[in-house]
Amino acid sequence: MGETNSGSKSSRWCLQGMTALVTGGSKGIGNAIVEELAQLGATVHTCARNEAELNDSLNQWTTKGYRVTGSVCDVASRVNRQELIARVSSQFNGKLNILVNNVGTNIKKQTVDFTEEDFSFLINTNLESAYHISQLAHPLLKASEAASIVFISSVAGEVSVNIGSIYGATKGAINQLTRNLACEWAKDNIRTNCVGPGPIKTPLGDTVFKDAKVLNSFISRTALGRLGEAEEVSSLVAFLCLPAASYITGQTIYVDGGFIVNALG
Ligand SMILES: NC(=O)c1ccc[n+]([C@@H]2O[C@H](COP(=O)([O-])OP(=O)(O)OC[C@H]3O[C@@H](n4cnc5c(N)ncnc54)[C@H](OP(=O)(O)O)[C@@H]3O)[C@@H](O)[C@H]2O)c1
């Protein structure tokens, strides 16, 4: 049933002929994921809100010879999500092999200070968008007959890192959504996994790590003693999408330099 790991050595480690949608690909981790998947041979569509930054990334990928397209989309908008999947469906003839739900953001406050608007914004951007995009993409993923969803959560979904309780709650929910979809959609040949980054150098990470005290507390807890690079996350995301990972589903794997396991850091 479905995809297996029994192909030739080269086809097990290649995404040639596959189609992918990566949300939030103009910067940071999403940008590295688009590039990694394209390097392995996939044709990729991505999206972001800022058109100029998106076009800048698209031009760089074109120069490198990668097959990447993009569209402006705010994944917090239900209508934008429907338009995004309609575009992907028409571009990829109704079939999608890979969906990476990467978009996520944060507001750092104490729990007693969060407003109703903060709550709706973070739940919508980090959780509802990924849930709804997965629902909308389901027929396309099923039609491909060998599909893979990767959610991007965070160490904050597993342990408390004092960067905001709503963020942590959305990421914990993504971990559980991963397990549910892995079981529910296995019959449709869709594997579902989750990658949880630790502290990674990106524009979003920079907003947290610009505070030297916060930076030091993260680094001292990280066993490898440094921040991670976006490319150290994208390599695992790509692996999970490969035919070589055909028996892996329902897992959340942390790329965190040993942050979570380092209880005495
Ligand atoms: N960096 C870290 O240390 C870290 C750690 C753990 C988990 N993560 C997770 O990793 C994922 C990526 O984070 P990052 O650090 O790479 O973030 P980032 O540097 O802020 O980049 C986010 C990307 O998503 C796009 N984006 C943001 N909101 C969007 C929206 N509403 N609709 C469409 N696109 C949107 C951004 O472009 P526009 O702004 O133009 O829309 C950008 O391309 C997130 O889920 C985050 O929670 C990051």
TrEMBL record:
A Pfam family that this protein carries is: adh_short_C2
| Keyword annotations of the record | NADP, Oxidoreductase
Entry superkingdom: Eukaryota
The name of this protein is: Tropinone reductase
Q: Does the keyword Cytoplasm feature in the UniProt annotation?
A: no
Q: Which family does it belong to?
A: Belongs to the short-chain dehydrogenases/reductases (SDR) family. SDR65C subfamily.
> Its Gene Ontology molecular function terms?
oxidoreductase activity
